[in-house]
Amino acid sequence: MVERMEFSSLIPALVALPLAGFLISGIFGNRLKSAAGFVSTGAVFLSFLLAVVSLAAFHPMERSVPEIVTVFPWISAGGIQISIAYQVDQLSLYMILIITGIGSLIHLYSIAYMKGDPGYARYFAYLNLFVFSMLNLVLAENLILLFLGWEGVGLCSYLLIGFDYHKDSAADAGMKAFITNRIGDLGMLLGIALVFWYTGSVSFVEITEAIPETPTFRYVLPLAAFCFFIGAMGKSAQLPLHVWLPDAMAGPTPVSALIHAATMVTAGIFLIARLNPIFLSAPQVGHWIAVVGSVTALFAATIGLFQNDIKKVLAYSTVSQLGYMFVAMGTGAYVAGLFHLMTHAFFKALLFLGSGSVIHALHHEQDLRNMGGLKNHMRITWVTFVIGSLAISGIPPFSGFFSKDLILEKTYAYGTLFYGIGLLTALLTAFYMFRTVYLTFYGSSRVEGSKASHLHESPAVMTIPLVILAVGAAVTGFLEVPHILFGGSNVLTRYFAPVLQRGTEISSMIVKHSLDGHASSDPSTEWILLAVGVSVGVAGIFAAGVVFLRNRNIPRDEESLTGIQRILAKKYYIDEFYKNFIVEPILLLGKFFADHVERNFLDFMLRGTGRVAVAISLVLRRIQTGVVVDYAILIVFGTIVILSFFLMRGL
């Protein structure tokens, strides 16, 4: 009873704090001025503290059932009853710790990064609304509340990406993100409709219970899973709905960290994990999730090789790493996917904020060709950025090594083709990340003009988050360690067992997909896989060093590249394809309807209706003479007509 009372107050307060920060910064921001940043940061940090208290109160290693916290009834229509209710379990607690923890660091970093911006208070209001929407998404007890949070983060991403709305590039990027995500959201809506139609409920607990008890629902499970998969593809930027994510770099750099690290882009991964009973019961959909994830991971990694904008490199890196997570979820390795979600949150937030520190020092310069030699001027940024790069490259003992190794091990058991693609992606990842490191921090300085004389380390309010994230990127991998190393550790496997167990019980057809961490029966095979994984990472780093340190090659302009290099630099011309074969035809069709169908047909009909009404009114107006004798004649005439009608009927 004590725990129930604790959760009934803790969870709503945890969600409400960012909402309060949004209202305060949004309404009183102009009066608060610089204090708006501290108010918003404080709101998210307090949410993080409440998330820690909630984790301690829940006793996740001992609880096998979720805690449902109902705030108030929301929708009552026909046979459906929906409440604003939150589901507190191992998965939701895991997500809120990541969202509020890393989110508060990004808020703190933004205080200095956005200083002096005329939209300072508006920026922090949007950030708080984003966190509020994300918390509703991951804590939702039902699909409708989850969809409300889902759309909320979509709205906030549009506002934050297009924050500098006076720039055409930012406004266009925001619109691109909004429209692309609507495609995925259509699949999400269809999935919700299918689930409700066959189960009569949108509650996650009731849906899980309905799967084995509703034979008709089991027949449409693959279709429902596919619809939800489409929704996940949109939010998590998988092919072919990935195009919005690189353009999202038009927003301020901390926004990129917030969207690309711990929040919006991981919503698709969370959705698959939350609906694991449905996805585990549709293994054929899981296979296609793995296929799309593998192709996306390799595709984005190849593009990252020839990008010269430091944020674009990290953006395509995010798309690639999300592909890794999709491979894990598709092969049934949910623990591996969620593990990589957390480690990625740390090292990718670190890398984005590190790039923001560089951009801040260079007065908004983002081109790698105009950097170089910065390690002597920005020691903290350099060290933390290298730690993040080592983590994403899978170099031990950093966190990315453990999570990536676990995914590669699971994909090896699932299929050697997926494993091969994963290895090649890991090689390319290490190469393009250390290409970025070498071009930014090593070699001779290529910083031009007055920027070179003003080079300095970022202020403490920006470097402190970098240090904290670097520590997280270095140590969080030890939560899940192969049993061949140091005796092993399976903290996350045991932690997520209650959330995933029900799904495995419902779907006996996919028991071949192990969810129990590094459960390998052959230690020698595991040693080989581990060694190969580390070797490709080291090889990528070494190759980048040979090209950009020893030979001191500086990337050329896109226009001077030829062949495959030009294709990769131009991102396979997918944006051009979408523009020429999808966007432009739709715009032309819209112009045709506007100029011809609407103007010449619809407008003509509407104007014709008006003319008919005017003509009728002219006739009727002539009858209204105001002379009593005329009205008497009309009355007599009308009476004769009515009597004649009845007489004719009588005959």
TrEMBL record:
Pfam families registered for this protein in UniProt: Proton_antipo_M, Proton_antipo_N
Any one GO CC term of the record: endomembrane system
Superkingdom: Bacteria
Transmembrane segments: 7-29, 35-58, 65-86, 92-111, 123-139, 145-165, 186-205, 217-234, 255-273, 285-306, 313-339, 382-402, 417-438, 459-479, 527-549, 628-648
InterPro entries: NADHpl_OxRdtase_5_subgr, ND/Mrp_TM, NU5C-like, Proton_antipo_N
Membrane topology: Multi-pass membrane protein
Domain NADH:quinone oxidoreductase/Mrp antiporter transmembrane positions: 140-428
Ranges for domain NADH-Ubiquinone oxidoreductase (complex I) chain 5 N-terminal: 74-124
Major place of residence: membrane
UniProt GO molecular function: NADH dehydrogenase (ubiquinone) activity; NADH dehydrogenase activity
Keywords annotated in UniProt: Membrane, Transmembrane, Transmembrane helix
Localization terms from the record: Endomembrane system; Membrane
GO biological process: ATP synthesis coupled electron transport; electron transport coupled proton transport
PANTHER family documented for this protein: NADH-UBIQUINONE OXIDOREDUCTASE CHAIN 5 (PTHR42829)
NCBIfam families named in the record: NDH_I_L, PRK06590.1
Protein name: NADH-quinone oxidoreductase subunit L
